[in-house]
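Readers of this paper often ask what the protein records in our data store actually look like. Such a record has a labelled line for the sequence and another for the backbone structure tokens. Nothing more is needed to write down the fold, since each code stands for a local backbone conformation. The record that follows is passed on verbatim for readers who wish to inspect the format.
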Amino acid sequence: MPFSPRTILAVATSFCLALVLTFVVRALARRFGFVAQPKIDRWHKKPTAMLGGAAIWLSVIITVLVFSLHTTYGLQILLASTFLFLVGLVDDLIHIKPYQKLIGQILGSAYVVYYGLSLPWTGSVLLNMALAIFWLIGITNAINLLDNMDGLASGIAIIAGGFLAVSFMNSGQYTEALIMLVFAGGLLGFLVYNSNPASIFMGDCGSMFVGFFLASSALMHVSGGRSRSFLPVLVVPILVLFIPIFDTTFVTVLRKLSGRAASQGGRDHTSHRLVALGMSERHAVLMLYGFAALSGLLAIVVQRTRLDVSLAAIAGFTILLTLIGVYLAGVKVYDESEEAMALKDKPLYAFLVDVSYKRRIFEVLLDVVLITLSYWSAYAINFPANSAAWDLFIRTLPVLLFIKMSVFLLMGVYRGLWRYTSMSDLIVFAKAVMLSSVGSILVLLFAFRFVGFSRKVFIIDAISMFLLLAGSRMAFRLFRQLVPAVSKQNGRRVLIYGAGDGGELLLRELRNNRELRLAPIGFLDDDPAKNGKVIHGLRVFGGNGDLRSVCAQHEIDEIVISSMKMSEERIQEILQCSMEKQIVVKRMRITMEDLTSR
């Protein structure tokens, strides 16, 4: 049974072993000088013990052997993973060359593939074996690259291992599921020391063991599971390990475009970009944990639901991650002079950066997916999977794509900038959706006499199309709202004096222009009617008599006056109060210069 006392005891044993062994390894690493020193291309800021992977490896191996967890491919996976652990350990100790590590990864991959593990994605045995080797090497290096922030790689691996265990249970592979839980238990014990602030890193010995063990276990799932449906075999391993795949692909593409080597270290990973947006390191890691859990849940959904629902869920998740990737790609993590040199030396990169229509191509392709997803949703809500009405869906989908894309183009859907999407843009979207829906109905009326069609389908389609279209365009503004403002440690805390139109305009500028390094905390206003109100999530405090207490309570560094109508007497009062508290006072001015009079 999946949750017998033996299961609980095995997982607890692995966890406790990792707790003890990590403590011992950390002490030994510090004593013998196996410590990672801070570098310009690394994230940590103080010397940190290495070789934590030894504790993970020992806790998993010992527990598997003690509880005699034998499976068809288990011994081969443990032996190959141990070999990769030793390759990583040698690299941690004497720093071998990248090609030497790659050779080790190829040898380990060839070993498990020889014993029957493969990715059954094609009808060719040789091609499946080649794909399996590529998968094993890719995931191993993906986990290695993901190990760039305290607790990130180990936490993601725990989540992936947990969802692989659930997938094994769904396929009736209970011993394999227990092995994955033991693996996750060992990682959890290590995470106690590796979470922010980390006192020990897993090192290459840990990341190579963890990455190869996860990758080969995913192959064990698709090679030995009882479910032979094509979609689970194709996407479950990808979804369970989606975050390391996404991060590696994201970093590789952007480094190549910017003229940097993909293997070069740097602070340009997904986690680093989230921190650059204003998140704390802990919150950035937790957000990536959340996405890893979401992709793992999606893998379980794919196993249990019908094909069209699975495809729609995968499409929605892919759209979400694509939008986040596009948004994060715009975050500056390199010095502007370095970017300029990359543009100078890489004509192709300069072309990709400068051509404005590349964004429009992305929008057009996105809308093709959204139109399809919206129309499918309308049919899925109204008709069962085996209904004859789905034949009409297949026949009419190209018609709707043609009509809706034409109307969107004519109505100006592709003229705006996403980061400045406003109410006027939403009105344009609503008109475009309404006209395209009416146009679609008219065409279908003349072409098919509207026989067999449901009016509810087109109502639901119009509503969902508007929500998807508006949601995708508002995504960047939503990301800005979800990502916290500049933290107290990285920016000066600011009160905005004046909760009117000028104050709202100033708040937008402070939030959008992160280079100012100013973190708005709230508003001050002398109007009693505004006291206690909230503007864009920030509270309005009373100005008369409350200035000193508000500044002291919220540790304010600066006050920025947003109104030009404030009397000189009131400004002097503010200055006097600010001098007592050593608070800087500034005033926002919007000026227009007549260049023709020069």
